[in-house]
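Morning. Coffee machine broken again, so started the prediction first thing and wrote up yesterday's gels while waiting. Chain of 253 residues, entered below exactly as on the submission form.
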Amino acid sequence: MEFKKINDRRFQCRLDEEDLEDNNISLDDFFKNDTDKIHSLLEVIMEEAEKNIGVTLSGEVMSLQLAPQPDHSILLTVSSGKEDLGNMLRKAGESISKAFSKPEKSNVIKNGEGTFKDAPFETFGDSLDKFELPDAQTDELKKTGQKKKASNVIKAGCGVFRLESLNDFEEMCTVSSRTWGITNALYKNKEDDTYYLVLEKGRCSEEKYRSLLNLLMEYSVFDSSKEERVAFIREHYSVVIGSNAINVVKKYM
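Came back before lunch.
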């Protein structure tokens, strides 16, 4: 396991094949939403996080996000939150089952060839960006004259991210680059005092867009990529900053 501390309320953990085998959990278990096994794995991760990076999330209520990586490891972002644990585990299983089209024959996620230790932490989620075949597989397809199947590339639409407080958004804006070619607006749900950042990719480069998504995963929780969800937020939640929210906040930081 590799750990990265984001702040006192959030950290990331990367799991390779050996980590999954040691904890008696496979890709199939995520597909089946086996909450018992996922919960057991989470308990181990919490213990190791406290030992390795000094992060302790008190209580049983937290948020968990899972994202497959290009080297076939799994990146988990764990943070304190308001969501019910059972519901959180269910969503975690659904998230990873959507991210992979089929499980490996061994039912265990295969680690990249010597790439894990050198790989930087990077969020590479199914609904956040394009999830393409590894370069090695792409080269093989070129040699055989085959084309990528549509199922191997998952394209993103708009994106909605949930933040627990305005302070989280301000902290993110402090370290974010100025955004150009990305439509973004900030909304507030007054019922539970949570905030929602709605993004729509415009003319910005894929590299800059991906960089912003990775940064957002450190300070927020991915909520949805569906246009219906965006429409709901715009209709029912209060507008905090209706246009160019990130740059507006950066201007006064």
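The beta strands are 2-7, 10-15, 62-68, 74-80, 159-163, 182-189, 194-201, 221-224, 238-241. Going to sketch it on the whiteboard this afternoon.
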